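Hey all, quick one. A colleague (J.T.) asked me to put the zinc ion job into the tracker so the inputs and the structure tokens live in one place instead of scattered across chat threads. No bug as far as I know, just bookkeeping. Sequence used:
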Amino acid sequence: MTITGGCRCGAVRYELAIDAVPPAYACHCLQCQTWSGSAFSEQLLLREDQVSVTGPVVRYDLTTEDRTSQQRMCGICHTRLYNTNTRRPGIAVIRAGTLDDSHLIDVAAHIWVKRKQPWLALPEGAQAWPESAPPAELAAALGLG
Ligand SMILES: [Zn+2]
Ligand SMILES: [Zn+2]
């Protein structure tokens, strides 16, 4: 099985070297709301070498404090597809809604729920943190390492 996705206009396509869609997490922080124009961002964590991209990708680097977030997007329609971050080298954060099979996504963890929009009720027993989760706890919630 190959997991595929891409941008809105179709110029950029990607393949993920994984057998099934892994659990995702939702980030409800204000930056993710601003960047997605939605209530939260939905993300998958993969190794960068598991991501193969074709098409006119452009990169936007946003440096805050001690880190640089390196955002990859379609150079034509500007859909944001994934990012890397200098604080976590080798890890790709996929914008999960860009998967072709986004209906298969299971959101297993929620972070920054103190900024969650009030109309949104999380499922009973959902794993959630008021701000960012400690990396080891988030990895465990997503069934990684
Ligand atoms: Zn595009
Ligand atoms: Zn966020």
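Adding what we noticed when we looked at it: The CA atoms of residues 48 and 133 lie 21 Å apart. Helices lie at 30-36, 135-141.
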